[in-house]
Amino acid sequence: MSFVPEFNALPLEALCRRANSADAAQVAQVLSRGAAGLDDFACLISPAGADFLETLCQQSQSLTRQRFGKVIRFFAPLYLSNECINNCKYCGFSRDNPILRVTLSADEIYREAVCLRDTGFRSVLLVAGEHPRFVSNGYLARCVEVLRPIIPGISLEVGPMETGEYAPLAAAGADGLVVYQETYDRGVYSEMHTAGPKRDFDWRLETPERAYAAGFRRIGIGALLGLSDWRREALALAAHARYLLKHCWKAHLTISFPRLRPAAGEFKPLSGIADRELVQLIAAFRLLLPDVGLVLSTRESARLRDGLIPLGITMVSAGSHTEPGGYTGAGHENVHRTHRGRIVSEESHSGRAPTGRTAATGQFDIADERSALEMAALIRKLGYEPVWKDWDRAFAGV
pLDDT band at 274, cuts 50/70/90? Predict the structure, then answer.
């Protein structure tokens, strides 16, 4: 069994109709008794639900404080490589983009991690484009082993693998796996992914279950908002989350809400979701799934992030870079330009800082450029406590 048959049987069209046609009385009823299922969730994200945004946010804030307290977990993305064999129209790492590419060595990744540790981070998300070398030669396992002594919380956002390929990574010390379906619309998915293994929709959809079977204790999912109608994506994402909570119940689940950002290739979003609608969406997810972690990255502006933190968010990134070597300049001397997977030029640079040197191309432009310390100060000002590390392997008996 997997989520694929359940997804195929999901009455998504009927749910979308409810999400677009629910009236004020139906929304009020859900708010009075709580969101029990996808029909209720559809009401909360409806246009009529937007008229109840203040009440929705109040209930979301109350539930979040009840279940999570007044704390915000911190993490940082650490990009290992921007090389990729997939062609995804919306992604800056797409193999057809003639960008500056680099893959960091284990020693260079350690330098990046030391910089993040010295800033305060104890939780990192290792990110890389999809490339066979990351699986075939033990590269990822080596990266995890190098970082484990200094970073207690290591999660991965890399190309989907078999359970047997995930198991050594969990054994090496990785405890989390993040995988966005990108879009739950099969037609749009096929249009966006024109080459590479990522074209397989079902294979990607089953990824969280394979990671869970391999021993990962944190699972993160999400949809990339801007590829299809946001209400449709939200309903499918909610159904996926409910399935994982039932079938992967030993893992902690998080949901992210990434919106498309400018990137190499200059892809234009196919659909939109306004700031107010994003607030409505996040609050509705909290009411439906009160114990799930909700993540907000530096894709969003400082102003919006400041407003959302008290309303249901439990985890944020800060001071982020989306290019390999972004924190220390590591690997910049090995930057090369590729087009359609082929090196077309190469440059060599000296020095230790990224300033004034050719840097690898990032996956997308960030919107909130505040440092981690500035973000921590803001969170304290809001009456919350920034948490850099919230668990230790000693408590897990590992």
Answer: very high
Residue 263 sits in a domain whose CATH number is 3.20.20.70
Which regions of 257-397 does DSSP assign to beta strands (E)?
293-296, 315-317, 336-339, 342-346, 385-387
Q: Which residues pair with 258 in a beta bridge?
A: none
The model scores a pTM over 0.90: yes
Residue 22 resides in a domain: no
Domain carrying residue 280: 54-390
Proportion of the chain above pLDDT 70, given as a percent:
90
Query: Residue 203 corresponds to which tokens in the numbers above?
Result: 């294979």
Q: Strand runs (DSSP E) across the chain, as ranges?
A: 71-81, 87-88, 99-101, 123-128, 153-157, 176-178, 193-195, 218-222, 252-256, 293-296, 315-317, 336-339, 342-346, 385-387
Q: What is the pLDDT of residues 216-231, one digit of tens each?
A: 999 999 999 999 999 9
Instruction: Classify residue 18: in a domain, yes or no.
Output: no
Considering its fold, how many domains does the chain have in total?
1
Residue 48 in any domain: the answer is no
Q: What is the dihedral of CA 31, 23, 309, 325, to 10 degrees?
A: 130
Measured CA distances, 241 to 223, 270, 290 (Å): 11, 24, 12
Q: Is residue 8 part of a domain?
A: no
